Amino acid sequence: MPIITANGIDIAYETSGNPDGPPVLLIMGLGMQLVSWPAEFVQGLEREGCFVIRFDNRDSGLSTKFDLAGVPNLPLSYVKSLVGWPLRSAYMLSDMAADAHGLLDALRIGRAHVVGVSMGGMIAQIFAARYPDRTSSLTSIMSSSGRRGLPGPTRAARRALMQPAPAGAQRDRLIEHMAQTFRVIGSPGFPMPEKMLRDRIAMSIERSLCPGGVARQLVAIAASGDRSPLLRQIVRPSLVIHGAADPLVPVACGIDTAKGIAGAVLHVIDGMGHDLPPQLIPRFLALLKPFLFSKIVPHAVAG
Fold first, then answer.
1. pLDDT confidence tier of residue 17, bands split at 50, 70 and 90
2. What's the rounded Cα separation, in Å, for the pair 163 and 25?
3. Which residues have CB under 8 Å from 156's CB, separation 6+?
4. Which domain range does residue 258 map to?
5. Which intervals hold domain AB hydrolase-1 (predicted)?
6. Residue 237 near residue 298 (C-beta atoms within 8 A)
7. Residue 83 clears pLDDT 70, i.e. is over it
8. CATH of the domain at 116
9. Is the pLDDT of residue 263 over 90?
10. Residue 255 falls inside a structural domain
11. pTM strictly above 0.85
12. More confident residue, 166 or 201
């Protein structure tokens, strides 16, 4: 696995596809790794002739961990975020966007189509706003602007996300714990086959496990706050995809994100929750294709 140093940290990454094709930078979500992108999705982009770039966010996978910052108290951080008190975070989402920018610099890629999922969508939004000259298009999937007043997770989804893994749990118990979380937040209309779900979780666990990193990323999301002003600065063609049945980041968050970006195209998918089920991969690729290959004219800054 190649690793480069960028923005002061080590970033594990992988490239595939046609080096002369349109670069597509994929940014994963909370606690997820570059291997969390469905193989069918990556292969579909490769078949379209794209140059696909995946990487591990800081505090996940094989990239730099911020263990010296300690593990934040999530219940206390959640209460502080509810009342609007400032949060102390080891880093911000803007730092993670700068990591992605540094990766493109290291790979000598001038501009890329930026595709982010969940927390990765938040990072992608910041990237597109702050680095328009490095952005060909933005795709924000099952993500949010972070604007106060938007609906939060369902009680079941919040409980599943905040529930710590059993202390000292062995591999099989960890897989079951994580599988239960994905069952709660996944797509009710497109349930993932059980073996596929468990195989994906096992692959991630065997590659890297960093629960402290997940906690630090959660606090970074809360501490980074409202991105609405940044969304108004995005001038590149933008696509927003969201599940109508998302229990973790409700569909109102996707609608709000699309409204905040001038000219953004919104697609709400019935039956989709907070995952990338195999049944929807062809639809995701079809939605992305016009943005990757057409001459969509960048829009003006929203007033």
1. very high
2. 31
3. 184, 247
4. 3-155+211-293
5. 22-275
6. yes
7. no
8. 3.40.50.1820
9. yes
10. yes
11. yes
12. 201
